[in-house]
Fold each of these.
Amino acid sequence: MRILVTNDDGIHAPGLAVAEAIARRFSDDVWVVAPADEQSGAGHSLTLTRPLRLRRHDDRRFSVSGTPTDSVMMGLLEVLGSPPDLILSGVNRGANLGEDVTYSGTVSAAMEGALAGVRSIAMSQVYAREGEGDAVRFTCAEAWGERAIRPLLDMPFAPGMLVNVNFPALPADRVKGIRVVGQGMRDYGRASLVKHKDPRGFPYYWLSFHGVVETGGHDTDLEAVADGYVAVTPLHLDLTYRDALTSLAARY
Ligand code: MN
């Protein structure tokens, strides 16, 4: 089995090494094509206004001067001679729960894989605390990764399907198990702006994500992780809200 590993935290991120270790539980044919620099929040963006550079680190390890989506495209179109059987994206430094998935470069790399018809799985390690930064421990992902991924390897994935896995911020022995749940949605307070002045007196702004309020909806990824489970969520690239099709059509 040939596995392509990528992420959005960049080629040097500790979570990428965790994803590679998980991949090696399943195969020796593991390839890495990942962004050269951190691309968190890049979503499903493509680089169209400047050239991409591909840097070879060793026979099966490459970095791309672009986004996670660029990296998957480069992996499929240039680096790998044939399509991989599996794409693993992550392990992201921080959660990709609820509406995070639309911002997430980690999840979007798996979306790109799904578009290409490759079985694709995103993996994220939830932070214990905000501001934990590089101190985030991946021990839960390390211990639970194989158990979360292996059941997905021989399961049919419908066209356009991908799977989003979030590991809770707990020591591995305190994780209660794995739950298959839907995507949740946080209540409000998603973003705020931090405003400061630069040394020349001009304002600059920084997006901040403190004070997010969430009520754990039942059977959502938010609830599962809060309750101490690994959350496994099937996603689909068809974003149509089918409940609104009839009422919307009646407007025209
Ligand atoms: Mn990230």
Amino acid sequence: MKFFVDTADVDAIRELADLGMADGVTTNPSLILKSGRDILEVTREIAEMISGPVSAEVVALEADAMIAEGRKLAKIAPNIAVKVPLTWDGLKTCRVLSDEGTMVNVTLCFSANQALLAAKAGATFISPFIGRLDDMNLDGMDLIRDIREIYDNYNFKTEILAASIRTVNHVTQCALTGADVMTAPSNVIKALASHPLTDKGLEQFMKDWAKTGQKIL
Ligand code: E4P
């Protein structure tokens, strides 16, 4: 499963990229706001830092304007994936940009039927939002499982990019379910390394090592 980092914070991306933990990046208007940076400038900086797909989202709501914005964003770098919302106009935009050879990430997906439409419109990625479904007392993972089954039934090439990931358990479930990609904030990715038994075991090893009086260096 590929790991994308869900942020426009270049320092957080760099730290994960240096470790080989950032196969791509996703941003959205809220994350651009949080970064306090200009969208074109920060997207260019991220796209130079990461060789994988970097999603940058259009903000127009009507297809012609979305297509124009998408073309402008796509010009930033060859690894830009234009992010469009899962609306009818977003699907039109997806078709046009995909046919032009631009990667498209269809975002704000909350149902299997929406995911089916995105695949038929030629999306490179479909972004089902797990956490926001969980927030409504629904099971976001059910959606990932349904989309996996549908895409496999018909051999759709669109990659399932599990989004709105809030917990380390979401990551495990996505990997078990066969999501192609998951995008998560850097704190969730870093939390994957934590385990209380690791901390406890290390503490004991350090105590015993100190008693040996030895040094390695
Ligand atoms: C995905 O591309 C979105 O940017 C993101 O995962 C949304 O997450 P949130 O629901 O935590 O805002």
